[in-house]
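Render this sequence as a predicted structure.
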Amino acid sequence: MDVSEAQKDAYAEGRCPYRLVLEHVTSRWGVLVLIQLLDRPYRFSELRRAIGRVSEKMLTQTLQTLERDGLVHRDAKPVIPPRVDYSLTPLGHEAAEQIRELALWTERRMGQVSRAREEYDTRKSATG
């Protein structure tokens, strides 16, 4: 992607509109929600259990943010007890596929990352 100097400056200063969406998609919980929803729609409690270690508040905020960005669909059914399902929109599915590829790349390259960390730590400890 060819990026002009003006676009680079806007991105660096946080004025670029896609920077905020990028932050939402790549946030700690955003990544996990998107990848999990690739499997199927989830109810809130199911999604929270599947992700693990996320507070109710953080999951709620993450889902609302992703819904606002057009990536997640919230389907509230008027039944008792209330039932709310979360799924990916077509845009969300596209984003989640990209995020999953990055996650898989990370998994495949973890050995190299571990070796690089060890080399770095060895150099740092040798130089004091």
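Summary. The first strand starts at residue 42 and ends at 43. The helical segments are 5-12, 17-25, 28-37, 44-51, 56-68, 90-108, 110-127.
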